[in-house]
Amino acid sequence: MQLKNKMMVGFFCLAGCIVAVYCLWLFFRTVEIVAVHQRNNYSSILVKNFPFTDKGKIDWWLENKDALKAKYDIPKPASYGGFTITIWLFKDGYKEEGKYDRLCFDDMNTKINCIDKNRGITFTVDDAIYREEENGKIFRLEY
Question: Helix, strand or coil for residue 35?
Answer without folding.
Answer: strand
